[in-house]
Design a protein that fits this description.
With 147 residues, this protein is mainly beta. It has a single domain, classed as Immunoglobulin-like. Helix content is 10%, strand content 37%. Strands 1, 2, 3, 4, 5, 6, 7, 8 and 9 form a 9-stranded antiparallel sheet that branches. The N and C termini lie far apart (45 Å).
Length: 147
């Protein structure tokens, strides 16, 4: 009887407790309509090209692309049991991955950016969902609608 009463009280408390709002990072789109990583300076835009390669464009405070300096970027993505690690080479004013993303959609992705080869990395984690948002027309990984 005492256990049943405790369960009933616990359920009543949970039912009327205010819901906790989780504060998620506001996603900002970059100049190519990719996901802007703001934890690093200059900011970095993660963009998936039509060939499914990852393009990293560094963006200054004015929103304009900046040529990469000594930054080192690695991306780990795909199935956790068989991850794919992408490395990058400079092509013009951007860094382009050596290989395309693995097949599939909604890929768990970890982006690590080092401002210099010996610097501590800044890490961003998100799912790469390449389907297009109907509202803002960005890929879902860079959707700025807040839905």
């Amino acid at each position: 009887m005492k256990t049943s009463l405790l369960r009933l009280v616990a359920l009543a408390v949970l039912a009327f407790a205010p819901t906790v709002s989780h504060a998620h990072e506001k996603i900002t789109a970059g100049p190519n309509r990719g996901r802007l990583i703001t934890a690093v300076e200059p900011r970095a835009e993660f963009f998936v090209t039509p060939e499914r390669k990852v393009q990293i464009t560094f963006v200054g405070q004015d929103g304009r692309p900046v040529a990469p300096a000594a930054q080192v970027v690695t991306v780990t993505t795909g199935k956790r049991s068989d991850p794919t690690r992408l490395t990058f080479a400079q092509v013009g004013n951007v860094l382009l991955s050596d290989a395309p993303l693995p097949a599939g959609n909604k890929l768990p992705t970890v982006v690590q950016i080092r401002s210099a080869p010996d610097a501590r990395p800044v890490t961003a984690r998100f799912n790469v969902d390449t389907s297009v948002c109907g509202d803002c027309r960005n890929a879902e990984y860079a959707c700025a609608c807040g839905h």
